TrEMBL record:
Top-level division of the source organism's lineage: Eukaryota
UniProt similarity note: Belongs to the chloride channel (TC 2.A.49) family.
Protein's gene: Clcn4
CDD domains: CBS_pair_voltage-gated_CLC_euk_bac (cd04591), ClC_3_like (cd03684)
Domain CBS as annotated: residue spans: 600-664, 697-755
Protein name (record): Chloride channel protein
Listed SMART domains: CBS
Pfam families given in the database record: CBS, Voltage_CLC
Length: 760
């Protein structure tokens, strides 16, 4: 922006516009920010602070506070995000167990905590203790038998319905933006779009409370995606306390990128994975400074969560594993097969889920969100209860699937037939034939897998907070564990086959089924989200399985290749397009040979472009133009005849400037001349005072010529984050290209409906 000088010949008339007036530089809801302008404003602010800091000690201290404010915001985000994640984890633990029973000694204890504190618990029956009573024991004093089972079944369903109804009601009444995962919207916001209220205080509060309710209800969803939204709400709240961030939308987005990293850090206990997730998956503009700050925010958040210790295992993660066997080259084949499965599952899930969500949007189904949540919860609870693998929380299920079978494991999955003559250390148990428990567990897992695949398609996208990371990992972990047990039994019974001969001798511990579950989980999560680098880092931080990076990488890359063969979009990009958000994906390639003149408005046969002239329009003319059009801004030209471009004026700033001028300056009336030049135009003696609006004029709008290839234009829009760019020929204005025009053109070139970019 260029500051206007003193007005020659008209005293100090309207020079108050040389000082910023309230709300100038802000944006309306559902509009895109101007990245270049925000950057330039921040540079001006920084220059001003630096020059002032040499004037006095106080100004120097203020400049230091300004420099440190970014780190303070990161510290606060990390502390609040870590605390909220810890509280959510503890509350989910307790409320999930509440569906099955209650602790008599202290009702706020979960099942595990209740039996920890009991002196009468034996190791073999560590899940049973007199202090913990199932509802049937408490109400009818029966723990076994048909009547006890039916009562427990009924109360399980009732609790689930109660939690889900409360959650959907809170979202509907208090914070409609608290539904869903939040990641598609955060990606859109970080690309420069404004959605007011999406990161507000009410959204933060309601999302935190309802997240506990929906995860506890047993629905097939996770809390990891919504935790990124919660952390970004924390980031938005703290950035509003510092003018450096609250008055600059570009700087605010740097804070939100770091907050997203803190969100993943506490969701998975993976601080480095969080930083990489923010860089690879969420952020649009990620300078080096934001990388350091994201790292710091993720560190503080992880440290806070570790201090709360919600899992009671003195670790950041629920899925910590310790495998005692290395992996072998021959195992890469089943790992790659799991990668193929993950890619196919990702494609199937995205297509089915988007089709269902589109149906929800376009039919009467969307008018009954509460009923939909209640029906899906009832179906989930009724089918989930009889199967022990779907009844428990998904996190516990994944934890059990990842576990290696040690000598002390009591899980059905570890019901192998032991050799009575075995004398080996506890950690190195050889491969053994599967017992009846393993076979029944395989059937139950197969049924649970089919159920999870189907129900997750209908659950994700309902009007409640719903994450996708944990259900995707559960699908992969179940498939992986079954493949792992299959390979293990094959190796045991056919150790003389050529592929097993070199590394799987009789009596050796050569195949770890838990590792296959881990690889399958990574493959399915990669197939759905299309993450690669951050996914592998999250997985090894999540499990502590540093030795198994290569299998994880092989599965993640394979799942991405397979899924990309059917469509380039991950689930978040698909939901962005479904909702019609104006998001220009950096990963998309534009290869068509069209020119700027093919895309610009106005087209042939359309009305000419609405423009302002530099010194020949009255206040009334400008107000009429604003009233009759809904454009976000207007090019300013020398005159309508010459059409020589001078600059660009934003609609919102024109409205504010005229409103302020009418309130604060007596001489401004409807027929006052508006001028954008340095000096006022020559006017007849009795004409009203003119209105100088040079202050709000952008004198360097981005321009391209009419023969610029669209490939270059798309690249400019992506890399500079433009709202619009003007098309000229030899300095004469021909037309304008907005971000929406670019998106419509790209949709048209991809044989999609250009009007799907409908969000206004």
């Amino acid at each position: 922006m260029v500051n206007a000088g003193d007005m020659n010949g008209s005293g100090n008339l309207m020079d108050f516009l040389d000082e910023p007036f309230p709300d100038v530089g802000t944006y309306e809801d559902f509009h895109t920010i101007d990245w270049l302008r925000e950057k330039s404003r921040d540079t001006d602010r920084h220059r001003k602070i630096t020059s002032k800091s040499k004037e006095s000690i106080w100004e120097f201290i203020k400049s230091l506070l300004d420099a440190w404010s970014g780190w303070v915001v990161m510290l606060l985000i990390g502390l609040l995000a870590g605390t909220l994640a810890g509280v959510i984890d503890l509350a989910v633990d307790w409320m999930t167990d509440l569906k099955e029973g209650v602790c008599l000694s202290a009702f706020w204890y979960s099942h595990e905590q209740c039996c920890w504190t009991s002196n009468e618990t034996t190791f073999d029956d560590r899940d049973k203790c007199p202090q913990w009573q199932k509802w049937s024991e408490l109400l009818v004093s029966q723990s076994e038998g048909a009547s006890a089972y039916i009562l427990n079944y009924f109360l399980y369903i009732m609790w689930a319905l109660c939690f889900a109804f409360l959650a959907v009601s809170l979202v509907r009444v208090f914070a409609p933006y608290a539904c869903g995962s939040g990641i598609p919207e955060i990606k859109t916001i970080l690309s420069g779009f404004i959605i007011r209220g999406y990161l507000g205080k009410w959204t933060l509060l309601i999302k935190t409370v309802t997240l506990v309710l929906v995860v506890s209800s047993g629905l097939s969803l996770g809390k990891e995606g919504p935790l990124v939204h919660v952390a970004c709400c924390c980031g938005n709240f703290f950035s509003s306390l510092f003018s450096k961030y609250s008055k600059n939308e570009g700087k605010r987005r740097e804070v939100l990128s770091a907050a997203a990293a803190a969100g993943v850090s506490v969701a998975f206990g993976a601080p480095i994975g969080g930083v990489l997730f923010s860089l690879e998956e969420v952020s649009y503009y990620f300078p080096l400074k934001t990388l350091w700050r994201s790292f710091f925010a993720a560190l503080v958040a992880a440290f806070t969560l570790r201090s709360i210790n919600p899992f009671g295992n003195s670790r950041l993660v629920l899925f910590y594993v310790e495998y005692h066997t290395p992996w072998y080259m021959a195992e890469l084949f089943p790992f790659i097969l799991l990668g193929v499965f993950g890619g196919l599952w990702g494609t199937l899930f995205i297509r089915c889920n988007i089709a269902w969500c589109r149906r929800r949007k376009t039919t009467r189904l969307g008018k009954y969100p509460v009923l939909e949540v209640i029906v899906i919860t009832a179906i989930t609870a009724i089918i989930a209860y009889p199967n022990p693998y779907t009844r428990r929380s998904t996190s516990e299920l994944i934890s059990e699937l990842f576990n290696d079978c040690g000598a002390l494991e009591s899980s059905q999955l570890c019901d192998y037939i032991n050799d009575p003559n075995m004398t080996r250390p506890v950690d190195d148990i050889p491969d053994r034939p599967a017992g009846p428990g393993v076979y029944s567990a395989m059937w139950q897992l197969a049924l649970a897998l089919v159920f999870k695949i189907i129900i997750t398609i209908f659950t994700f996208g309902m009007k409640i907070p719903s994450g996708l990371f944990i259900p995707s990992m559960a699908v992969g972990a179940m498939a992986g564990r079954m493949v792992g047990i299959g390979v293990e039994q094959l190796a045991y019974h056919h150790h003389d086959w050529i592929i097993f001969r070199n590394w799987c001798r009789p009596g050796a511990d050569c195949v770890t089924p838990g590792l296959y579950a881990m690889v399958g989980a990574a493959a399915c999560l990669g197939g759905v989200t299309r993450m690669t680098v951050s996914l592998v880092v999250i997985m090894f931080e999540l499990t502590g399985g540093l030795e198994y990076i290569v299998p994880l990488m092989a599965a993640a890359v394979t799942s991405k290749w397979v899924a990309d063969a059917f469509g380039k979009e991950g689930i978040y990009e698909a939901h962005i397009h479904l909702n019609g958000y104006p998001f220009l994906d950096v990963k998309d390639e534009f290869t068509h040979r069209t020119l700027a003149t093919d895309v610009m408005r106005p087209r042939r046969g359309e009305a000419p472009l609405s423009v302002l002239t530099q010194d020949s329009m009255t206040v009334e003319d400008v107000e009429t133009l604003i009233k009759e059009t809904d454009y976000n801004g207007f090019p300013v030209v020398v005159s309508k005849d010459s059409e020589r471009l001078i600059g660009f004026a934003q609609r919102r700033e024109l409205i504010l400037a005229i409103k302020n001028a009418r309130q604060r300056q007596d001489g401004v009336v409807s027929n006052s001349i508006v001028y954008f030049t340095e000096d006022p135009p020559e006017l007849p003696p009795n004409s009203p005072h003119p209105l100088k609006l040079r202050r709000i004029l952008n004198l360097s709008p981005f321009t391209v010529t009419d023969h610029t290839p669209m490939e270059t234009v798309v690249d400019i829009f992506r890399k500079l984050g433009l709202r619009q760019c003007l098309v000229t020929r030899s300095g004469r204005l021909l037309g304008i290209i907005t971000k929406k025009d670019v998106l419509r053109h790209m949709a048209q070139m991809a044989n999609q409906d250009p009007e799907s970019i409908m969000f206004n």
